[in-house]
Design goal:
By secondary structure, this protein is an alpha/beta fold. It has one domain: P-loop containing nucleotide triphosphate hydrolases (Rossmann fold), CATH 3.40.50. About 60% of the residues lie in helices and about 15% in strands. The chain has 10 helices and 5 strands; from the N terminus they run βαβαααβαβααααβα. Strands 2-3-1-4-5 form a 5-stranded parallel sheet. Helix 1 crosses helix 10. About 35% of the residues are buried. The structure holds BIS(adenosine)-5'-tetraphosphate. BIS(adenosine)-5'-tetraphosphate binds next to helix 1, helix 2, helix 3, helix 6 and helix 10. The site of BIS(adenosine)-5'-tetraphosphate has 27 residues, from helix 1, helix 2, helix 3, helix 6 and helix 10.
């Protein structure tokens, strides 16, 4: 089973590259951001709770996203592998993911991190905010809060995979196709 974690700060290109990877490797895409936004559109209790935090650029509680991922793994039992996009975002989430995969006799193959400097992230997200309708892309204060949350809570997750010798980092600035080729080279070397 090929199980990839795409990692990086908000706006690094995780969602963009996931779309291309799904097509090439036929993996199931699990984006916690997309699942949460879907809950918001459906107006569920979970969605209402998540919206408040997301609009402020804060992370949603671990137990909420871990439960969502557990359900998705259960409903995709025959998948050839998964792309985890935007998850895990804390070390607690990373540990929970390992336990969930272990019950399925599986494990993470590799975490691939997209390296992008802050000014580029802000520009990309503000640009997307012009027509995405996403409140968390609309103002620079919220974008900076998301980057701050990433630096304090999410960046340490890289070490968790580095210690397991499952971590690769690549330059996330450049053409989308060029970055995709680099990711494919990392996967082919696994
Ligand atoms: P996400 O939906 O994961 O949002 P993101 O980090 O902004 O997405 P991504 O990094 O995929 O953006 P992309 O590069 O595709 O999370 C949103 C919120 O949900 C979080 O803040 C949090 O509140 C909550 N949440 C989600 N998961 C959670 C978890 N596990 N735990 C707790 N809370 C959680 O796109 C950015 C833009 O850049 C696009 O417009 C794209 O076109 C552009 N772009 C991409 N590649 C480019 C390139 N090479 N050059 C130029 N532009 C590029």
């Amino acid at each position: 089973m090929l199980n990839l974690v795409l990692f990086g700060p908000p706006g690094a290109g995780k969602g963009t590259q996931s779309q291309k990877l799904i097509e090439k490797y036929k993996l199931v895409h699990l984006s916690t951001g997309d699942i949460l936004r879907n809950e918001i559109v459906q107006g569920t209790e979970l969605g209402l709770e998540a919206k408040k935090l997301m609009d402020e650029g804060m992370l949603v509680p671990d137990e909420v996203v871990i439960g969502m991922i557990s359900n998705k793994l259960d409903s995709n039992k025959d998948a050839p592998g998964f792309i985890f996009d935007g998850f895990p975002r804390t070390v607690a989430q990373a540990k929970a993911l390992d336990s969930l995969l272990e019950t399925k006799n599986s494990e993470i193959s590799c975490m691939i991190a997209l390296d992008v400097r802050n000014t580029e992230l802000e520009n990309r997200l503000l640009l997307r905010g012009k027509d995405s309708g996403r409140p968390d892309d609309a103002n620079v204060e919220v974008i900076r809060k998301r980057i701050e949350e990433y630096n304090s809570k999410t960046a340490p997750v890289a070490n968790y995979y580095r210690e397991q010798d499952k971590f690769s980092t690549i330059n996330g600035v450049g053409g989308v196709d060029q970055i995709f080729s680099t990711i494919c080279r990392v996967i082919n070397d696994l």
